[in-house]
């Protein structure tokens, strides 16, 4: 709520540019919730300061450009960038290690899931770029499909809830809990499949011996 109250007058004053810029900042791991940023963009459209469909397009552009820059920096300057103290505060060693483990465990699908996880999104895309194992089309497909799910939900929620904040925030929290529940179920399924593959590989190895 505090972030929303801080963003609302800025977005009202500067419109699409402010929303796009804030989404770029979110992409680099600055602790400003992306969902609240998009909802706030939808709210100013609902209040008549912007067009909601244009705001959706700006939201898509902001999240994809932000994520793409993180992926590109990781791909070409990853090792050097990780030496900067300011970067280490955002992409902490613990987050970077967790992103590496998750990425190597689940592969490219982690980039799809990461779009919904603010704490891991930046290190996951950065790690994917550093790995040199993910092509730009693969990154764009995974991130783009996930963004097509999340961005319209938040923008249009803000639009329809612009004149009823209590209702809007109650729905926002329900969506957040629902997304985390679905991600938890998905992670459990992927983890089980990964375990089965390891067991199968181990069985083949034992059989060869």
What ranges have pLDDT less than 50 throughout 5 or more consecutive residues?
none
Strand segment count: 0
Order of helices and strands: HHHHHHHHH
> How would a textbook summarize the main sheet?
none
Mean pLDDT: 83
The helicity comes to: over 70%
What is the domain total for the residues?
A: 1
Overview of the structural elements:
The protein has 209 residues and is an all-alpha fold. The protein has one domain (2-208). The chain has helices at 2-27, 34-46, 52-81, 85-90, 93-106, 109-114, 118-131, 136-160, 165-208. α1 (2-27) crosses α3 (52-81), α2 (34-46) packs antiparallel against α3 (52-81) and α3 packs across α8 (136-160). The longest helix has 44 residues, at 165-208. It is globular. The protein starts with a helix and ends with a helix. 34% of the residues are buried.
Describe what is shown at a glance.
By secondary structure, the protein is mainly α.
Q: Characteristics of this structure?
A:
mainly alpha; 209 residues; 0% strand
SSE inventory with pairings:
Layout: H1 2-27, H2 34-46, H3 52-81, H4 85-90, H5 93-106, H6 109-114, H7 118-131, H8 136-160, H9 165-208
């Amino acid at each position: 709520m505090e972030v929303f109250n801080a963003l609302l007058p800025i977005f009202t004053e500067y419109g699409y540019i402010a929303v796009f810029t804030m989404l770029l900042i979110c992409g680099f791991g600055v602790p400003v919730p992306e969902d609240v940023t998009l909802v706030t963009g939808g709210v100013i459209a609902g209040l008549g300061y912007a067009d909601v469909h244009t705001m959706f397009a700006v939201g898509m552009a902001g999240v994809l450009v932000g994520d793409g820059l993180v992926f590109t920096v990781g791909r070409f300057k990853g090792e050097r960038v990780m030496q900067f103290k300011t970067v280490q505060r955002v992409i902490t060693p613990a987050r970077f290690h967790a992103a590496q483990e998750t990425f190597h465990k689940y592969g490219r699908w982690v980039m799809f899931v990461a779009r919904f996880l603010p704490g891991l999104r930046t290190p996951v895309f950065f790690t994917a770029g550093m790995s040199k194992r993910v092509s730009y089309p693969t990154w764009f497909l995974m991130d783009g499909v996930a963004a097509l799910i999340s961005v319209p939900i938040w923008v249009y929620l803000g639009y329809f809830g612009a004149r009823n904040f209590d209702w809007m925030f109650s729905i926002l929290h329900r969506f957040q809990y629902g997304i985390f529940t679905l991600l938890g179920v998905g992670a459990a399924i992927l983890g089980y499949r990964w375990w089965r593959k390891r067991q199968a590989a181990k069985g083949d190895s034992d059989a060869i011996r």
